[in-house]
Amino acid sequence: MAKLIIVDDEKSIRAALRDILEYEGYDVEEAKDGEEGLDMILRGSYDVALCDIKMPKMDGLEVLLKAGEAGKQTQFVMISAFGNVENAVEATKRGAFDFITKPPDLNRLLITVRNAIERTKMVQETKTLRRKIYKLNEIIGESLPIQKVKETINRVAATEARVLITGPNGSGKEMVAKQIHEKGTRAAMPLVEVNCAAIPSELIESELFGHEKGAFTGAMSKRIGKFEQADGGTLFLDEIGDMSLSAQAKVLRALQESKITRVGGDKEIRVNVRVIAATNKDLRREIAEGNFREDLFHRLSVIVIHVPPLAERREDVPQLADKFLNDIAGEYGSPVKEIEPAAMQHLQSLPWTGNVRELRNVVERLVIMCGDRISLEDVKLYA
C-alpha cells in the first residue's frame, strides 16, 4: 500500500484530502505545518507528499528543498491557493513532481497521485537494477594489486578526469571502465562502448562520429555516431591502440573542443562525454614506432589504471572461482558445485595466460563435465 503525507496548515483541507485518499486505499498521515512535515518526512518513508506552499514556520518549497538535500525519494505534489506561473516554475525547479491549485479538482488530484506513486516505483526499481548491475560488474579480489585498482576507481569515479586502463587481454579492463561509470556522476546516463580493434579502419570514423546520407557508397541514411549516443554519459574506447591515425586525429579534436563533425557533413555538433580508454598495448612504444599520437596519449592518460594479469594475483583465484561457480549455477538453474581444496590449489598454480576470462571458461567447463565436488583429478583433466 502506498504511503502518503499531507502537509497543510488548514485542518479542513487535510481532513478532506485524507478522506478522499483513504477511500482510494492509500495509507495517509498528516502534518500541520512545514516544520512538522519535514521532520516526519526525514524520519519516515513516504511515496508522495501533498504539500501546501504557504505555511507558518517553514513554507512548502523549503520542505521540498530540504527533503531533496537529505536524499529522500518522496515525490512532492505542491498545492497552493495562489496558482501563479511563478510558483509552479519555482516548485518544478526544486524538484516537485507536479503543482495543483486549491481547491483541487478531484480527478486531477487522483491521477497526479497515481502518477507520482508510479514515479516513486520507477526510481526504486532503477536503484535496485543499478545495485544488481553494480554487483554483476563487481571487481573480485583482495590482493594488493587489485586493492590498488579499486582504490583508484573510488578516487576518480566522481571526477570528470579521463582514464586510460592498461592490462593484458582478459584481465578485466572493461569491468574497471563500467565500475568508473557506475560510481560516477554520469551513472544515470548511457555508457557507450566501442571496440576499436573489431571495426575496420575505413569504418571507425563513421562508427565514432556518424555520417550524413550519401557521405559514401552505401550511406543510404544519416547515422548517429557513438560520440553523440554517449552525450551526457561515458564513451568507452576499448583497445584504442588499434585505432587508425586519421581517427586518432579526430578523437583528439573532439576531446579538445567537445565538438564532432559527421562524416560527409560540415556542421559542428557539441557533445558532452567522459572518455575512458583501454588498451593491451604499450602506447609509449606505439608512439615511438609512429603508430599512436603522443598528444592523444596525454589527453587520454590523465589517470592511468593498470589491471594486473591473473598470474600476478593468484591469491584472488579462489574468490573468483567461487563467484563463477555461483554465477554459472544461476545461469544453468543447477546447484552450486564445490571445488576441493587440493583442486583449488592446483588452479592457483596454473599460468593463466588468458587471465580472468580463461579462469571463467575453465570453471564453466568443470561445472559441465564434473560431479557435485570438483576434484584435483578433474582439474588436471579439464583445466
Automatic annotation (TrEMBL):
<protein>
    <submittedName>
        <fullName>Response regulator</fullName>
    </submittedName>
</protein>
<dbReference type="InterPro" id="IPR058031">
    <property type="entry name" value="AAA_lid_NorR"/>
</dbReference>
<dbReference type="InterPro" id="IPR002078">
    <property type="entry name" value="Sigma_54_int"/>
</dbReference>
<feature type="domain" description="Sigma-54 factor interaction">
    <location>
        <begin position="139"/>
        <end position="368"/>
    </location>
</feature>
<dbReference type="GO" id="GO:0000160">
    <property type="term" value="P:phosphorelay signal transduction system"/>
</dbReference>
<dbReference type="GO" id="GO:0005524">
    <property type="term" value="F:ATP binding"/>
</dbReference>
<dbReference type="InterPro" id="IPR001789">
    <property type="entry name" value="Sig_transdc_resp-reg_receiver"/>
</dbReference>
<keyword id="KW-0547">Nucleotide-binding</keyword>
<dbReference type="InterPro" id="IPR025943">
    <property type="entry name" value="Sigma_54_int_dom_ATP-bd_2"/>
</dbReference>
<dbReference type="InterPro" id="IPR027417">
    <property type="entry name" value="P-loop_NTPase"/>
</dbReference>
<dbReference type="InterPro" id="IPR003593">
    <property type="entry name" value="AAA+_ATPase"/>
</dbReference>
<keyword id="KW-0067">ATP-binding</keyword>
<dbReference type="GO" id="GO:0006355">
    <property type="term" value="P:regulation of DNA-templated transcription"/>
</dbReference>
<feature type="domain" description="Response regulatory">
    <location>
        <begin position="3"/>
        <end position="117"/>
    </location>
</feature>
<dbReference type="InterPro" id="IPR011006">
    <property type="entry name" value="CheY-like_superfamily"/>
</dbReference>
<feature type="modified residue" description="4-aspartylphosphate">
    <location>
        <position position="52"/>
    </location>
</feature>
<dbReference type="Pfam" id="PF25601">
    <property type="entry name" value="AAA_lid_14"/>
</dbReference>
<keyword id="KW-0597">Phosphoprotein</keyword>
<dbReference type="Pfam" id="PF00158">
    <property type="entry name" value="Sigma54_activat"/>
</dbReference>
<dbReference type="Pfam" id="PF00072">
    <property type="entry name" value="Response_reg"/>
</dbReference>
